[in-house]
Amino acid sequence: MLPQRMKKAITDNPKKLANLIDLVNLPSTLREFVGQSQISRLGCFMSVWSYIKTNNLQDPNNKNVVNCDEKLKSILLGKPQVELAELPALIKMHFPKEPK
Amino acid sequence: MGKIPPSFRSALTNPNLRKPSSLFPQPKPPNNPHNFPEKKSPKFPGKSRTPNPQQPLSLFKSPNLEDAKTILNSLTNNDPRFLHSLLQSFASISSTTTDSIAFLRHITKTFPSFSPDRSTYHILLSNSPNSISSIHQTLNSMLSAGITPDKVTVDIAVRTLCSAGQVDDAVQILKELCSKHCCCDTNTLNFLVKNLCKCRSLSTVYAFIDEMKAEFGVKPDLVTYTILIDNVCNGKNLREALRLVTVLHEEGFKPDCFVYNTIMKGYCVLSKGSEAIEVYNKMKEEGVEPDLVTYNTLIFGLSKSGRVVEAKKLLRVMGEKGYFPDEVTYTSLMNGMCRKGDALAAVALLSEMEAKGCSPNSCTYNTLVHGLCKSRLLEKAVEFYGVMKSGGMKLETASYATLVRALCRDGRVAEAYEVFDYAVGSKSLTDVAAYSTLESTLKWLKKAKEQGLAV
């Protein structure tokens, strides 16, 4: 079922998929964090999430909350704490829709 | 085995280098009742003359002709079977047919006692680099050696081209060989029809069958019709399927269990339980004995159209007839129960199933996780998800999405992230699919929270 559905998703909405996997030139703050000059939104999410996991930044009392370190603060609006639930939205802010 | 230079010995013992030849079909896995009947068992009359399939040699490491010749010169064994293995090994890595043919010529020159026969050329054919020109080249060299192609040759040529996805070329070569040399048998016809069905329009397939019948006298048989019916059923074109059944009767064939199963599947996929039952009754009227696939299909169809009670009855009938329900039967039933919202009954069925010695598969667990999440029994679902994880089973799109959604709704976002990691790590879904689901779920969660619907 998956390939069929994927195909449908792609044909229905090619833009949506494109802005998820297209490589984008990064602003300097993000460039420093991921260590690359270009990355897709998906790749960016993956690297932020794995950064959180490797550095054990999830709050031990409430796993749904991330205690940001300095590096993470720099890309997530300088908040000291973010909820995991808002992570995709926060990352999306670095990937503005391209003006037509 | 002949004398082999020490440097090549490692290649002989390395099991990773063994490459099963396409000449010898691997034993098919037991028919999964979800994949519908494929009766054709490819038969190769030439099989007994070809080398032992258990030990394909992987002697050659480079496709270079000169290297191969050097190795050949160092060998002393002239057993034809051994030479066939050598040829097979070289042809499988050689990049051009010219090289393979030249190598064969070199073998015959080195060992004058060895005379290539039809199976020798079959080895070359099955290892041709998948283009019509190389097939032609091999066939020409076969003809110039005074060997005429037979049914097996036709079959191998067609299969080689089909496996490379060149169905049109396969049709062309089939017609050529049939008009010039010998006829093909229905196995080849069926194989080609099956491949044509996958990628060409129905009218093309019909035209091809008519042409084969009119020009070469190769008549479609019951298997051909089953393939066609299966194809139209998959395309949800049941009217055409019924027309085919009447054609089948007119041609003097009596539909067998496979035909009925295929039609039944067509109805079941469309959730048309009553029609499926009608087919089942007709089948009994005609005196065709239902098999395990029939029952599985019917139980699947009834469960899908929400008639679990009848499906359960059928489970008993099935047992009386001496068929043991398998994991597909039980999973279909569980699916039906979950659709009705009775996930706990499905869990109960799981223990019944295990008690009868039938072990659940990943599809079973996916069904359960999906159903439990839908019935808001998150704890149980997480428990089964744990079982899946420890068994390394893959998540399906639907169960992944429902599980992530249910976890988020309960405010267990971290666990949803963990499920996401598992889905990506176990390659159940593509990164894109898994992430899109997670992202849209979290977006939905935010909205739900604003409206005070979620935790």
Structure description:
- The complex is a heterodimer of chains A (100) and B (455).
- Chain A is 52% helix and 10% strand.
- By secondary structure, chain A is mainly alpha-helical.
- In chain A, the strands form 2 sheets. A two-stranded antiparallel ribbon of chain A has the order 1-2.
- The mean pLDDT of chain A is 78.
- Chain B has helices at 9-13, 65-73, 80-93, 97-110, 118-126, 132-144, 151-163, 167-180, 186-199, 202-216, 222-234, 238-250, 257-269, 273-285, 292-304, 308-320, 327-339, 343-355, 362-374, 378-390, 397-409, 413-425, 431-450.
- Chain B has 455 residues and is mainly α.
- At the A-B interface, helix 1, helix 2, helix 4 and helix 6 of A face helix 22 and helix 23 of B.
Task: Record the SSE blueprint.
The complex is a heterodimer of chains A (100) and B (455).
Chain A: H1 2-12, H2 14-21, E1 24-25, H3 28-34, E2 38-39, H4 41-54, E3 65-67, H5 70-75, E4 81-83, H6 87-92
Antiparallel strand pairs in A: 1-2, 3-4
Helix pairs in contact in A: 1-2
Chain B: H1 9-13, H2 65-73, H3 80-93, H4 97-110, H5 118-126, H6 132-144, H7 151-163, H8 167-180, H9 186-199, H10 202-216, H11 222-234, H12 238-250, H13 257-269, H14 273-285, H15 292-304, H16 308-320, H17 327-339, H18 343-355, H19 362-374, H20 378-390, H21 397-409, H22 413-425, H23 431-450
Helix pairs in contact in B: 2-4, 3-4, 5-6, 5-7, 7-8, 7-9, 8-10, 9-10, 9-11, 11-12, 11-13, 13-14, 13-15, 14-15, 15-16, 15-17, 16-17, 17-18, 17-19, 18-19, 19-20, 19-21, 21-22, 21-23, 22-23
InterPro entries (chain A): SWIB_domain, SWIB_MDM2_dom_sf, SWIB_MDM2_domain
Organism (chain A): Clitoria ternatea
Domain DM2 (chain A): 19-97
